Amino acid sequence: MTGGVDVKLCGLSTPAQVAAALDAGPRWLGFVVFARSPRHVAPDDLAALTAPAAGRAERVAVLVDPDDGLVDRVAGAVDVLQLHGGETPERVAAIARRSGRAVWKAWAVGDRLDVEAVNAYAGAVDRFLFDAKPPKDAALPGGNGVAFNAALLRGVAVARPWILSGGLDAASLGPAVARSGARAVDVSSGVEEAPGVKSASLMAAFVAAARTLEPANA
Ligand SMILES: O=C(O)c1ccccc1N[C@@H]1O[C@H](COP(=O)(O)O)[C@@H](O)[C@H]1O
C-alpha cells in the first residue's frame, strides 16, 4: 500500500529503471513481455530483472495472448500474470491453473456495458485492470498513453478488485481517481521521457501523488 491508492509502475526494462522504481515505493512493478513493445523484456532476462524486487514489490508480467510455452518461461520470475490480449475466460482460467500465479485480466473500456462485461472473467482472476481501447492504428493493445472516461467505472458492480489504467500521469491521477472511485492505479507512458525510457523523477512524483489521495468509495 502506498497510502490512499496502490500503484503499479509498469514497463520497466532495465536494472536502473527497476532500482529507481523501487525507490519510488509502488506496490507493484510491471514488466512487459511482448516483442512489439518498446518496453519489451525477453523472457530469459526476466528473472534477473525482477530479482531486486523480491520482498519489496509484487512483480507483474504483462503478456498478450501468451501460449503455454511463454507462460511456463515467465511464471517463475513473477508473482502475477497480467493478460492484456483477447484471452477468453476459459483461457484465463487455464493460464491460472497452469502457472499457479495470481492472474489479472486487462479490459478495454469504451462504455459502461464494457465494464459490466468483465464479470464473465470473475471466476478465473484475482483482479481486473481497466484500460482505454487502443487507437485503431495502434501497434500495442496497451501502453499507448490513452485515457478513457474514468467516470464509467463509478458505481459499477465489478466482482473483483480492479485497477484504473490508461493515460495517467501525476497531474491527471487525482481527478481520475475521484471520478472512478479507484483504489489502485497503473501507469506506464505517464512516467516516461520517451517510449520505454522511464523517468526516476516522474515515477517518484506519481507515487508521491498517489500517497496523498484518500481511498475512494466506488
Ligand atoms: O506498455 C506496453 O508497452 C504494453 C504492451 C502490451 C500490452 C500492455 C502494455 N501496457 C499496459 O498498458 C497500461 C497503460 O499504459 P499507459 O499508462 O496508458 O501508457 C500499462 O500500465 C500496462 O499495464
Automatic annotation (TrEMBL):
GO MF, one example: phosphoribosylanthranilate isomerase activity
Domain N-(5'phosphoribosyl) anthranilate isomerase (PRAI): start-end pairs: 8-208
Coiled coil: none
Cytoplasm found in the keyword field: no
Entry keyword Amino-acid biosynthesis: yes
GO biological process: L-tryptophan biosynthetic process
Entry EC no(s): 5.3.1.24
Class of the enzyme per the UniProt entry, highest EC level: isomerase
Family matches, as Pfam families: PRAI
Catalytic activity of the protein: N-(5-phospho-beta-D-ribosyl)anthranilate = 1-(2-carboxyphenylamino)-1-deoxy-D-ribulose 5-phosphate
Protein's pathway: Amino-acid biosynthesis; L-tryptophan biosynthesis; L-tryptophan from chorismate: step 3/5
Keyword line: Amino-acid biosynthesis, Aromatic amino acid biosynthesis, Isomerase, Tryptophan biosynthesis
Similarity section: Belongs to the TrpF family.
PANTHER family named among the record's database cross-references: N-(5'-PHOSPHORIBOSYL)ANTHRANILATE ISOMERASE
Protein name: N-(5'-phosphoribosyl)anthranilate isomerase
Native source organism of the sequence: Rhodothalassium salexigens DSM 2132
Encoding gene per record: trpF
